[in-house]
Amino acid sequence: MGQRIHFVVDPQGWCCMGLIIFVWLYNTIFIPKVILFPHYEEGNISVVAVLCYYFCSLFCIASLFRASVADPGKLPENPKIPITEREHWELCNKCNMMRPKRSHHCSRCGHCVRRMDHHCPWINNCVGEDNHWLFLQLCFYTQVLSSYTLILDFCHYYYFLPLKKENWDVFVFRHELALLRISAFMGLIILCGISRLFYTQLMGIFT
Questions:
Q1: What CA–CA distances, in Å, run from 15 to 18, 27, 34?
Q2: Phi, psi (5° rounding) for residue 117?
Q3: What is the DSSP string of 85-144?
Q4: More confident: 169 or 34
Q5: How high is the pLDDT of residue 107?
Q6: Residue 99: phi, psi to the nearest 5?
Q7: What pLDDT is stored for residue 172 in this prediction?
Q8: Comparing C-alpha atoms, which of 21, 124, 16, 137 is closest to residue 72?
Q9: Is the pLDDT of residue 174 over 70?
Q10: pLDDT at position 1, please?
Q11: pLDDT(171) > 70
Q12: Looking at residue 2, what is its pLDDT?
């Protein structure tokens, strides 16, 4: 399974990835600032909860970059076709190259990909034979981080003890409700979308 660097020049993909990174950065900054650190200082939560959030956030962004730059299974220009497998290869009518069956041509990337599942604009890369497992990791960690964020948003208002002191001169505390509503909205949208995609991917693998 190759792990070559693969970079797609696609402005639309860059915009989609930029949006994902913005959502990740937003929650990574404001959730600890508004919820985790204040409640930790007053003894409502343990340091484990804070560390777990940062670990989930780190795994999520790392899997995003790994899935976006990993080679999905790009076919070389002059592939060496084993004699025993020649009958399983076919000619691509778009790039005029020989390719194994179950390969597909990606119009955005401009080449054929082995066992291509789809081109995902959110990672600005194809999902194919060599990076499919990285894409599944990204879906899993995104679900974990989104779920954790939603749980913290809920617990902040309905479970944790009210904070005894807050610095209302700081922007994040003066706009706490709006910031957390935005966080909850983004977390819910991403969780629903990724959960559906993750389920579809697993069913495709099993069948």
A1: 5, 19, 28
A2: -90, -55
A3: GGGGEEE-TTT--EEETT-EEETTTTEEETT--EEETTTTEEE-TTTHHHHHHHHHHHHH
A4: 34
A5: 84
A6: -145, 150
A7: 58
A8: 124
A9: no
A10: 44
A11: no
A12: 46
In the chain, DSSP assigns E strands to 89-91, 98-100, 104-106, 111-113, 118-120, 125-127
> Residue type for 184, please?
A
User: Which residue in 144, 160, 151 sits closest to 180, CA to CA?
Assistant: 151
The amino acid at residue 51 is L
Which stretch of 116-125, 171-180, 181-190 has the lowest confidence by average pLDDT? 171-180
CA distance 125 to 123: 5
Catalytic pick among 56, 109, 120, 139: 120
Q: How far apart are CA 121 and CA 135, in angstroms?
A: 12
How high does pLDDT run on average in the chain? 83
For this structure, is 120 an active site residue? yes
From residue 199, alpha-carbon distances to 94, 102, 149, 205 in Å are 32, 21, 21, 10
Residue the block writes with tokens 């660097």: 5
Look-up of token digits 């194994």:
100
- Give the chain's end-to-end CA distance (angstroms, integer): 22
Structure tokens at 80: 């060496």
- For residue 72, give the 3-state DSSP assignment: coil
State the average pLDDT over residues 86-109.
80
- The residue whose two tokens read 């204040």 is 38
Q: Mean pLDDT over residues 55-80, rounded?
A: 87
